[in-house]
């Protein structure tokens, strides 16, 4: 079998929750209590997505800002009991984040973030 060369590879890494920086211009409103209930019910199954071009080149989470906020609230309430899919290193929770396939510019990263947050077919919750 021939080896496939991937130009833009995604990599899943666990990083400390306390180091996650949200997208400062994210306009999506989140129903945090519903997100928390969903994480408690199903575990954490949808990694955050990082882009280096968000936040004026400082980098940050282009997708998953609500999940990040929910996890930080859950951590504050009970740091010893992370949900399934989240690791605990004894001081912080480690959260899965997708890295790679960064946008070519901040405008392109924000365009993706707006699309990612707004292209839906139906609302709802747990």
Shape: globular
Mean pLDDT: 90
Question: What are the segments in which pLDDT stays under 50 over at least 5 consecutive residues?
Answer: none
Q: Beta-strand level of the residues, as a percent range?
A: 15-25%
Number of helices: 3
Q: What pattern of helices and strands is seen along the backbone? A: EHEEHEEH
Radius of gyration: 15 Å
Number of DSSP-assigned strands: 5
Helix content: 25-40%
Structural classification: alpha+beta
**How far apart are the termini?**
44 Å
What about the largest sheet? 5 strands, mixed
Short overview:
This protein has 126 residues and is an alpha+beta fold. It has three helices and five strands; from the N terminus they run E-H-E-E-H-E-E-H. It has helices at 32-42, 65-77, 106-118; strands at 11-16, 48-51, 60-63, 87-88, 93-99.
Protein architecture, described:
- This protein is an alpha+beta fold and 126 residues long.
- It is 29% helix and 18% strand.
- It has helices spanning 32-42, 65-77, 106-118, and strands at residues 11-16, 48-51, 60-63, 87-88, 93-99.
- Strands 1, 2, 3, 4 and 5 form a five-stranded mixed β-sheet that branches.
- It is globular and about 40 Å long.
- The mean pLDDT is 90.
